[in-house]
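in:
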């Protein structure tokens, strides 16, 4: 009886010791304990190393340069980026590291189309033309619709030509283009909508007579011709909604005065200047003695 109790106590102690050291009575337990001890040993050995093994990581400066090149040059390849960074700028970086960084940037900043519509309008010699309408009261409760053609330069937001008529036609639009450009054709593209007055004879005459290419916007997409649409809104806000026009000649006179003011003096937020480039703040008056503005009745 005493022997059996002693044997049980010894077995109990052995089991406790095995649990403490996570030893199992199977080969898997022994191998697991061996791997654990080896990891602890390798961790101590690795901590003594001065330099870490493998290729050094890219510095933050190089990452920022690669990011700037990637974002400012859509569609650029990894080889060109590596040539710019390593050959031109003189940084030590491998081609595979550049490719890896570009893959990371492509996930964070998805690539854009090679050329957006906004970029095309900004880089090209472009003019835009479109019609806007004004209603004149001919008699009591009877109004007549007047069409105003505007031809606008995209680069300086300058109104190149304007005219108005109650009944526009394709021949009339072609004649307005001839009056606008005479014999000088410094522009390459003409942006217009898909109105029938632009889509037939005018579109055929532009490349043959004016050496300009016609670019029509998508159907029901006025935002693709933004500058001339913005001018129409400005014209109606600052002139049409403030004046009651008596007849067509009155409208023509006020329109001439407004467009002269718009081209010479009105500051445009898009170019931070007036369309003709007149800087009103170049020579300020002495002692800031600005003259008092006086209103002129229409």
């Amino acid at each position: 009886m005493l022997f059996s109790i002693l044997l049980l106590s010894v077995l109990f102690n052995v089991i406790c010791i095995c649990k403490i050291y996570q030893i199992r009575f199977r080969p898997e337990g022994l191998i697991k304990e061996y791997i654990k001890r080896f990891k602890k040993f390798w961790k101590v050995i690795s901590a003594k190393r001065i330099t870490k093994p493998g290729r050094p990581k890219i510095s933050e400066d190089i990452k920022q340069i690669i990011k700037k090149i990637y974002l400012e040059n859509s569609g650029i390849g990894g080889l060109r980026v590596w040539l710019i960074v390593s050959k031109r700028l003189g940084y030590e970086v491998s081609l595979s590291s550049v490719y890896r960084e570009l893959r990371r940037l492509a996930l964070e900043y998805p690539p854009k189309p090679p050329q957006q519509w906004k970029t095309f309008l900004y880089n090209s010699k472009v003019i835009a033309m479109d019609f806007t309408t004004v209603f004149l009261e001919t008699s009591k409760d009877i109004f007549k619709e007047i069409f105003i053609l505007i031809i606008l330069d995209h680069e300086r937001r300058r109104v190149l030509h304007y005219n108005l008529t109650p009944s526009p036609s394709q021949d009339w639009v072609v004649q307005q283009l001839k009056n606008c450009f005479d014999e000088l054709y410094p522009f390459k593209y003409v942006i217009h909508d898909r109105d029938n007055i632009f889509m037939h004879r005018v579109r055929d005459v532009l490349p043959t007579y004016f050496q300009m290419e016609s670019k029509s916007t998508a159907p029901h997409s006025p935002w693709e011709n933004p500058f001339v649409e913005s001018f129409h809104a400005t014209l109606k806000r600052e002139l049409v909604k403030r004046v009651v026009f008596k007849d067509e000649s009155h409208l023509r006179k006020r329109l001439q005065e407004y467009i002269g003011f718009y081209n010479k003096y009105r500051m445009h937020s898009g170019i931070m200047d007036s369309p003709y480039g007149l800087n009103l703040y170049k020579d300020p008056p002495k002692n800031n003695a600005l003259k008092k503005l006086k209103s002129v009745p229409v």
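note: The mean pLDDT is 79.
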